[in-house]
């Protein structure tokens, strides 16, 4: 048995004071108040990243099983205990082949943090961003019907002709639908939300924005309680004020922090001309091409730079993404639950992480 003591304890919903958590056989056997000198400044549920394209030299689009295992270990050390492998716009046959491979990996259990797949494209709209426009195509319902159960999230543009039918079908299968890379009309947005879309992909980026006389996608996302807002709080994709606005409008229950990290250190990235500029991967024309900022750093920057409350920032990296996927157990810390935890110091740097029987300490 291991006992973790902390000055602050976040259980997935509420921030508590000094606490002790007893771990036994990968589970939390007891939670109680603690009066001694704690080992950690903060304990929280491990972070859940819904948008993980890769990291450093590991690219989700072509990684081997061994590379995915290495990536999972890197992410655990950074406080991310669960994550979705994100695959982006590509020819449908190639994309389907990759999804099948990732599904096999998910089912094998060899990468314990990998809990599903996020497909971002190719059914996008009028704001493609860094996606290859030659591969953006109309929705193929037969292709969607062949998707394996490991697919947990799909980004679709509301202006796609079959967006409503696709959303209804996917939600009926238990797959969350996010609206992204889009400049839709107010009617297209509303119909897709009614059909079951419950998120927007990377708020402010790849969508129509906030205007005082026009209902852009970003504005609608900020004021509509039915949808959560994915947010890349690396402070390159969005400014501190934009982060602050999102949390002021939605709270931690409505903001879903994502890393959107990419493999910036590969030959493929070099061939695309991707380079790190001011800490962020960019194409040669200056277009942002994902992030190099971990989810724990997004939490840190939200709090220490953007001035977001700690409880809200932690919710946005734990309970809110869990709710989007309808899997609350990923981000819940209670007696009897699996020990999926992250420890942070007062600067909100990760100092330890636990996923069942696997632990990492800085």
TrEMBL record:
InterPro entries: Amidohydro-rel, GlcNAc_6-P_deAcase, Metal_Hydrolase. Residues 115-344 form the Amidohydrolase-related domain. GO terms for molecular function: metal ion binding; N-acetylglucosamine-6-phosphate deacetylase activity. Pfam families: Amidohydro_1. Keywords: Hydrolase, Metal-binding. GO terms for biological process: N-acetylglucosamine catabolic process. This is Unannotated protein.
